[in-house]
Amino acid sequence: MDETTLSVDLATQELYVKARNDGSETLWDRKAALKNQCGFGEQGVCCRICTMGPCRVSPIPGKGVQKGICGATADVIASRHYARMVAGGSSAHSDHGRHIAHVLHMASRDGDYQIRDEKKLLNVAARWGVATEGKDIYQVAHDVAEAALNDFGKPFGSMVIPPSITKQRLKVWEDNDILPDAIDKEVVSIMHATHMGCTADAESMINLSMRTSLTDGWGGSYIGTEFSDIIFGTPMPREIEANMGVIEKNMVNIVLHGHEPSLSEMIVVAADDPELKALARGVGAEGINLVGICCTGNEVAMRHGIKIAGNFNQQELAIVTGAVEAMIVDVQCIFPSLANLAQCYHTKFITTSKLAKIKDAVHIEFDENNAYECAKGIIRKAVENYTNRKHEKVSIPTHKSTGMIGYSNQAIIGQLDRVVNSYTHKPGTFEPLAQCLVSGVLRGAAGVVGCNNPKVKGDHSHIEIIKKMLANDVIVVVTGCAAQAAAKAGLLSKDAVKYCGVGLQKVCELADIPPVLHMGSCVDNSRILELVGEVAKILGLDMSELPVVGAAPEWMSEKAVAIGTYVVSSGIDTFLGVVPPVTGSPEVTDILTNRLEDWVGAKFYFETDPAVAAEKMLARIEEKRAKIEALN
Length: 632
Ligand code: NFS
Ligand code: SF4
Fold this sequence. Notes:
Helix content is 48%, strand content 11%. By secondary structure, the chain is an alpha/beta fold. The chain folds into four domains: 3-56, no CATH class; 74-232, Substrate Binding Domain Of Dnak, Chain:A, Domain 2, CATH 1.20.1270.30; 244-393, Rossmann fold; 405-629, 3-Layer(aba) Sandwich (Rossmann fold), CATH 3.40.50. Helix 22 links the parallel strand 14 (548-552) and strand 15. The mean pLDDT is 97.
């Protein structure tokens, strides 16, 4: 394979060649080995929900087999499959949120987990009606955690919706009957509705999917973000480095990969322990170097400036450098291949979660009740492994970029306060941003999020779309692996204003921000919902009336389907660069890319060509400007 076709990232190309020379297999080799991927699966028309099947029906209406044994049509099969992807994605995010809520519940003044953002805790307390007056802050934390945990499974009533939602949006949800009940309940209910012999109507199935997805964006993910901020601190702007060049030749390199910050935060704290530092020197290393991959990488980069080694496509390649003593993972987006790959080098591949044990990995279960000592134990293993490094196998690419990271909404407001015109704007709000949108200095805003996928040349679509937005005065916010693609391409640097139109350039200079704002991990898409909701409220509009679009140019996971669905349900158009497996059903395709607009004021666009997607995003932004311009 010609490595230049796999990714635009030069470190990736270099390490792919090294992997080949080392005889190590990567995702691209396995993709090639699959030859043609199944066309029925790709179009969503293969059903395995009961054992009368599997039934694969024709994706072409009127031609070939039109129904499964039970009579399910392509529309039924594809919509059910879509719903189950939403359930899978929502459950991953919400279980992450629940886990963080448990960590908040165990926080104590003299424990390993403490409260770092009291103000946010008090804000959040009001949402669940938790009394705070005269109470110790740790008692408040305990009560808030309990209230949130109860929201996951409460038997009656709707989920508690965060206050950044607009009242118009709530009405849209009520009118469409998608205002969700409890978080866990919706996921269970949709698994029920997709069981053999239940929902057999595509409209109803997508409607239920929307309802379930909202438990993710406005529920589990929101809780994940806010509670992480409360325990680990709300991110503030700082500089970071990104790409494989952050791996250090003479240091013990530890890669943090996965999603939840409870483990990675403890590793960051423990890596500073004098005992471990001395141990590292004792084995001949200059120190301990922590680097991140995927969303856990984003979490610790946002809060501590831990360097980013790479994104989803690069998880194997980090090990291929031959200079990684340990890769520590928890849950989600972890290739099972890493276990065997690690054995080709000297890397210890350490799994830590009961939910993500991997055969042939070293499993050290992380115990939050003994978090610090547990983290120390894991780091010790990595340090001791340094002497096993096979120096002839080490080759670290030099590529790395610098950029700014840490743009929580609190951080953005802090930057906006610099541009506040005290006669017209209140400080401490998003008003300057709202005004820039109204005046047209900024034409709009785009959220570019999501994964890598070997169906797309790595990082190419992310970067192409982002650059097109910047050139047209559309400010960009990023999360997840898209954010890491932007970081590697230098787009998080303030120098990236060189790609911007004059309006965006001016805004960046006044606010002292880069034109692409890294808002965190994928659960932190909740920050984007909050931002859009708050701006809409300032302008008295619904979220669907703002010139705002979302894109997942290289998505691959069920989580991304859940995110896309809650983003559209929140009134924001979403452009998918990988076509979801629904095109075998004309009705599901029509609902997602057309009819949804009548329901919730936004819809999906499937567009694999990033240049065309960017054009359509800009056109949609201009179309949506009508409402906002009437305010002028
Ligand atoms: Ni999001 Fe993060 Fe990356 Fe995709 Fe995976 S790490 S939760 S799912 S691959 S962006
Ligand atoms: Fe086939 Fe229907 Fe069973 Fe699906 S639910 S496998 S379509 S018989």
